[in-house]
Amino acid sequence: MDLNFITDYLTSIDADVILPLGIILFLLVVPWGPEIWQNFFTFMFAVKGLALLIFPEVVAGYLIQKKVDALHLQEIRCLGIILLADALSHILTRKSSDPTVKTSLLWSRTLYFATMSMLMYFTMKTTADSKKNNINLKLYQVSWPATVLFVCGYLYYSLAESDWGGYSEQSKTWRNVNIRVDFLIWFLHGILSFVFPRIQCQFQTTLTDLDTAHGFLARGMGASFLMLAITAGRSVNFLREEDKKSILLSHGVANLLFLMTMAFCQIFTKVFSEWHLFYGMSFVALTAINAFLGCDVPNMLKSAKFQFRNIFSTKGD
């Protein structure tokens, strides 16, 4: 399937048009309250996540100016998976009456957009004259003001919450241990990816020459990991066990998708080293097992099956 027409269309859009449209969209969404605001970004995360996961080559043609390699594509896929995981977390918990759930998702996305805005500004200032620059700076010059607006919107709604939750631990179960392990993994890998992107990239690949796009995408993954870490860390204090299960389920699905894309790269490309197999894939597999054990998959499937039957049942049944 030829997708070049999508790339041509995206790269032909003028920056002078994108930014005003972004501002208008922001002004249309922000007055409707935090629920509409969150639902809007959940939809955007889901759409963008699917695009990054399914069409990384198309997205790379828009983000990267020069040569695109397998590491670029895998980093883009990973960013898409994380956005999908966060969107799934909100979808599964949006009906919850626990204020801790609401504020946790608000603050996690506030941190994500704030970190991404700083990353974009740093990238624009430091890579413009770099000989290894391989990113479309015009894109970031347009995206940065819009990202700052999103930070302002999320910060406003986060600070406007009167009840921030923060209850003490409600139960002494193994699920809380699963959650803490999940938080620790996302948090440490987020810090490592954001602070030491070169080490993270070279450690599991055979590449010796990295460009600015590798570094930017790795740091973007770090910011995304920290977003999931905040949600996981706060979920220990959720009032309902079902909400905890939902967070672990979304993170487990993310790790499962990570594992599938990593296996694809390991088999069909020559960029990734043995460390990618022995460390990366093994660690992701253990993280997925931890999440699925905590969310009690068998009982969740039974509950989902029961709810699915109720949807299609009639009053006369």
Automatic annotation (TrEMBL):
Keyword terms: Membrane, Transmembrane, Transmembrane helix
Bilayer-spanning residue ranges: 12-34, 40-64, 76-93, 105-123, 135-157, 177-196, 247-269, 275-295
Annotated signal sequence range: none
Name under which the protein is recorded: Uncharacterized protein
Organism: Mytilus coruscus
